[in-house]
Write a structure and sequence with these properties.
There is one protein chain. The chain is an alpha/beta fold and 353 residues long. The protein has two domains: 140 residues, translation initiation factor eif-2b, domain 1 (Four Helix Bundle (Hemerythrin (Met), subunit A)), CATH 1.20.120.420; 209 residues, Rossmann fold (3-Layer(aba) Sandwich), CATH 3.40.50. It has a seven-stranded mixed β-sheet, with helices on both faces. The chain is globular, with a radius of gyration of 20 Å. The relative contact order is 0.11. The structure holds 5-S-methyl-1-O-phosphono-5-thio-D-ribulose. 5-S-methyl-1-O-phosphono-5-thio-D-ribulose binds next to helix 2 and strand 10.
């Protein structure tokens, strides 16, 4: 992976760029202090960028993987025109192994596999690049639609709470939860955002706050443990979050701490919304107990911004997602519309529509 500076003014919607025949990923580990890109030339670079959190957020991971397959196809076809398919299969397995929870990764790889199966003769790279670019563009369009559906649920004017980062940076552009917030703010329904800082990677403090400040949307950061008390103060209409995987029964995996937020919201009578494209719904996972939850290194908890913060000798438990039961969710919003009080029957009907 090569770190490069691009001579452009960067917004949250520029997290994934195809330029100069290479994939450029805004290095989200460095934001908001530095705006640099990682250049990926093959699937190995791309898988490592996903694993190392250069790019993160479920839809963004899926789109990146599709570009990774296009890079693999270009490289393998050039080096071994007779055997490129087997080698691309190995590259796709590497991409699939980069992170386990966000189902958008596996969804995008499946779309690529189907496209590869349909290819006949000729250079396979142009159609695979076109597919990645189409998935990227479609995601942006879906997020705008989701923004409209989600914002319409908010009576307002009110303040909202969000967790982690489900914005332009986490998607192909505009964002899922932050897409609803952007649209809701533009319509005068949302006046103020309280964002959890989201330890240990600080996606809320570093990324969500960066996006909202760029958009001139008033944002106040909170320690993760403050959200329940903030709801108790009043004036919060909704909690709005994204998701990494939604099970067939409506249970939602999202950044660790989301379940606690949903439980606190129910206690305080605050509504709870999940905004995610239908590619985040996994009909093959019956319920939340079946969702694979990624556990990352203890070091991420024992240190902050690269500096040790814990007593020497302490261990750490670092699951990076949790599962919010469907019964705590007032609405799941997708590009197709709203699923109120989700359950297995409503999810199946929504997907079949
Ligand atoms: O570990 P991350 O930063 O990839 O986790 C991201 C989240 O949990 C987001 O809330 C989720 O992917 C939705 S992004 C539109």
């Amino acid at each position: 992976m090569q770190s490069v500076q691009l001579d452009i003014s960067i917004t949250a919607d520029d997290a994934i760029l195809w330029r100069d025949n290479a994939l450029h990923l805004l290095d989200q580990r460095l934001l908001p202090n530095e705006e640099r890109f990682i250049r990926c030339l093959d699937a190995v670079d791309t898988a490592e960028a996903i694993r190392a959190m250069v790019v993160r957020g479920a839809p963004a991971i899926g789109i990146t993987a599709a570009y990774g397959v296009a890079l693999a196809v270009r490289q393998r076809h050039a080096l071994a025109p007779e055997h490129w398919r087997e080698r691309v299969e190995r590259d796709m397995a590497l991409l699939a192994g980069s992170r386990p929870t966000a189902v958008n990764l596996f969804w995008a790889l499946e779309r690529c596999r189907r496209a590869l199966d349909r290819l006949e003769g000729g250079d396979p790279f142009p159609p695979m690049l076109t597919l990645a670019q189409q998935l990227h563009k479609d995601d942006r369009t879906m997020n705008r639609r989701m923004g409209e559906f989600g914002a319409a649920l908010i009576e307002g004017p009110t303040a909202v709470i969000t967790h982690c980062n489900a914005g332009g940076l986490a998607t192909g552009g505009h964002g899922t939860a932050l897409g609803v917030i952007r649209t809701g703010h533009a319509q005068g329904r949302i006046t103020q955002v309280f964002a959890d800082e989201t330890r240990p990677w600080l996606q809320g403090a570093r990324l969500t706050a960066w996006e909202l400040v760029q958009e001139d949307i008033p944002v106040q950061l909170m320690a993760d443990g403050a959200a329940c008390a903030r709801m108790g103060e009043g004036g919060i209409g909704w909690v709005i979050v994204g998701s990494d995987r939604i099970a067939a029964n409506g249970d939602v995996a999202n950044k660790i701490g989301t379940f606690a937020l949903a439980a606190a919201a129910r206690y305080h009578g605050v509504k709870f919304m999940v905004a995610a494209p239908t590619s985040t719904i996994d009909p093959d996972t019956a319920d939340g107990a079946d969702i694979p939850i990624e556990t990352r290194a203890e070091e991420e908890i024992l240190s902050c911004a690269g500096r040790p913060v814990a007593a020497a000798g302490a261990g750490a438990w670092n699951p990076v997602f949790d599962v919010t039961p469907a019964e705590l969710i007032d609405a799941i919003v997708t590009e197709k519309g709203v699923i109120p009080n989700p359950d297995a029957e409503k999810i199946a009907a929504h997907l079949a529509d």
